[in-house]
């Protein structure tokens, strides 16, 4: 059996150029020193409160759902030339996706052209008819995008980058990218004098700049807030962290109210008008008057203010139509349709179970494929065929047959591996990468690297933190 592409080592075990200095350093580190550094990182992360709530999960003693996302000490290193190409591909993709969302809520030219099936969009749970004809600043809907990238290939070849999925609603994880870098600089300062690593610490500044740039016209000094569902949300640490880093208020729905066509937040000095909301609340819960009437997480009347152009929401309402897994297969065609260009970053080949021939193939080859629920997230609602039992495959086959439109399938990619410090020592583990792309309508910006997620279980391809995955610092080396 061929082994996966190794980020640090070539086919014959030779160290790749971008890792040469680091590999020499790592070879000189005693295991007990690395172990103590790992323990130190865990203590610091707990002290700072960098935890992740796993819904429905219980610790062994039956209590508590707050867990650390395990942090790995060995960085993932990307050479500048690879990053430069990836960055161009990310900008191209996010630009096309924003064009698509605008088109869906305006002229629907891509639907009329038959490139994306109309029923896939108009019958989609993420389509928001309330947004039809609504103009948003700069025609940008996804201001903050998290694009999941995997590298596939064999050890004896060159790994190729693919886009696994697009996260355009409320992508999370950027706080771990920032905290991982701070931790590496604290634990191993000597490494940063030996390598010229592109910085990521300016991300909160870029984020605030992006948010301020989409404020309603005529507002010169916009008031920006971060809207959180509250402290019981799995990503609450990140909401509080980003608000603090940007120097803006962290608010919950109960802190906001609508009056005379504007949104205000309650403060100790009295009401203060809000111009831009970086919302970490899903569409359904944003406005009980417009969406779910039982929601206590949003602000009643918010959508009316938004539609009138008196507040900016980042990301826009209705953005989810473009990060649905049933829409993902059409993104390369979107790039050609809107930009007249060939995709720089390729999709993973995908079978749509809603198509008769695709469904037949998937049902026959399910034991070889990864089958995903189109609305699923976090590693749930999916089957990894090669890792499943015959009974699990048979059971999932019946589920897909019952509702084929709910599923897509992809080949089981041989995800690249990166050396990882585990209990048994240094061993290869599968990884992916989530770069964060910021779009204001004037610029598209990406901090170098992103969040590398790692499947800590040997042989596992599931990197999600909710499924036991961890994270690594991601280094993009300057030339």
Tell me about this structure.
The chain has 479 residues and is of the alpha+beta class. Among the domains are: 17-132 and 142-196 and 323-345 and 413-476, no CATH class; 349-411, Dna Ligase, domain 1. Helix content is 29%, strand content 22%. The chain is built from 13 helices and 23 strands. The chain has a 5-stranded mixed beta sheet with strand order 3-23-22-19-18. A hairpin with a 6-residue loop joins β9 and β10 (272-274). α3 packs across α11 (331-339). It is globular, with a radius of gyration of 23 Å. It starts with 19 loop residues before the first helix and ends with a strand. It holds the Pfam family CP_ATPgrasp_2. This is Circularly permuted type 2 ATP-grasp protein.
User: Which class best fits the helix and strand makeup?
Assistant: alpha+beta
Low-confidence stretches: 55-64
Strand order of the largest sheet: 3-23-22-19-18
Summed up, the helix count is 13
Question: Secondary-structure blueprint of this entry?
Answer:
Layout: H1 20-27, H2 31-48, E1 51-53, E2 66-68, E3 71-78, H3 80-104, H4 109-112, H5 118-122, E4 144-152, E5 160-167, H6 174-187, H7 189-194, H8 203-213, E6 224-227, H9 236-246, E7 249-251, E8 256-259, E9 262-265, E10 272-274, E11 276-279, H10 302-307, E12 312-314, H11 331-339, E13 346-347, E14 351-352, H12 356-365, E15 369-373, E16 382-384, H13 390-402, E17 407-411, E18 417-422, E19 425-434, E20 436-439, E21 444-446, E22 451-454, E23 470-476
Organism: Rubrivivax rivuli
Protein name: Circularly permuted type 2 ATP-grasp protein
InterPro entries: ATP-dep_Glu-Cys_Ligase-2, CP_ATPgrasp_2, UCP005522
């Amino acid at each position: 059996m061929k082994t996966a592409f190794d980020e640090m080592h070539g086919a014959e075990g030779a160290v790749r150029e971008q890792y040469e200095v680091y590999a020499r350093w790592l070879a000189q580190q005693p295991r007990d020193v690395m172990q103590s550094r790992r323990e130190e990182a865990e203590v610091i992360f707990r002290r700072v409160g960098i935890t992740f709530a796993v819904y429905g999960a219980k610790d062994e003693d039956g209590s508590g759902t707050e867990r650390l996302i395990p942090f790995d000490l060995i960085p993932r290193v990307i050479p500048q030339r690879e990053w430069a190409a990836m960055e161009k591909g990310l900008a191209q993709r996010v630009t096309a996706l924003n064009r698509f969302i605008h088109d869906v809520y305006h002229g629907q030219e891509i639907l009329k052209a038959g490139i994306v099936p109309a029923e896939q969009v108009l019958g989609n749970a993420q389509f928001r008819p309330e947004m039809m004809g609504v103009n948003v600043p700069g025609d940008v809907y996804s201001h903050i995008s998290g694009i999941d990238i995997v590298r596939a290939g064999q050890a004896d070849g060159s790994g190729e980058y693919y886009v696994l999925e697009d996260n355009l609603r409320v992508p999370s994880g950027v706080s771990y990218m920032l905290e991982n870098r701070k931790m590496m600089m604290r634990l191993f300062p000597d490494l940063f004098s030996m390598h010229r690593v592109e910085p990521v610490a300016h991300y909160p500044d870029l984020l605030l700049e992006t948010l301020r740039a989409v404020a309603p016209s005529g507002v010169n000094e916009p008031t920006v807030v971060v809207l959180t569902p509250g402290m019981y949300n799995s990503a609450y640490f990140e909401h509080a962290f980003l608000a603090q880093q940007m120097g803006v208020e962290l608010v919950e729905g109960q802190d906001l109210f609508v009056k005379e066509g504007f949104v205000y937040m309650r403060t100790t000095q009295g009401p203060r008008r809000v111009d831009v909301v970086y919302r970490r609340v899903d569409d359904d819960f944003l406005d009980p008057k417009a969406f779910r009437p039982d929601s206590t997480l949003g602000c009643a009347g918010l959508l009316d203010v938004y539609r009138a152009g008196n507040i900016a929401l980042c990301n826009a309402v209705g953005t989810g139509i473009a990060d649905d897994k049933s829409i993902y297969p059409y993104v390369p065609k979107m790039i050609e349709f809107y930009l007249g260009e060939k995709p720089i970053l390729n999709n993973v080949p995908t079978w749509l179970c809603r198509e008769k021939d695709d469904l037949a193939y998937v049902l026959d080859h399910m034991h070889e494929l990864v089958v995903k629920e189109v609305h699923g997230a976090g590693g749930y609602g999916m089957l990894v065929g090669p890792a499943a039992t015959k009974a699990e495959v048979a059971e999932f086959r019946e589920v897909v047959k019952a509702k084929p439109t709910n599923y897509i399938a992809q080949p089981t990619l041989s995800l690249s591996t990166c050396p990882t410090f585990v209990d048994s020592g240094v061993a290869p583990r599968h990884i992916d990468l989530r770069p964060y792309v910021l779009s204001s309508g004037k610029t598209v910006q990406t901090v170098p690297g992103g969040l590398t997620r790692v499947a800590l279980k040997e042989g596992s391809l599931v990197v999600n933190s909710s499924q036991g995955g961890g994270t690594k610092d991601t280094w993009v080396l300057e030339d």
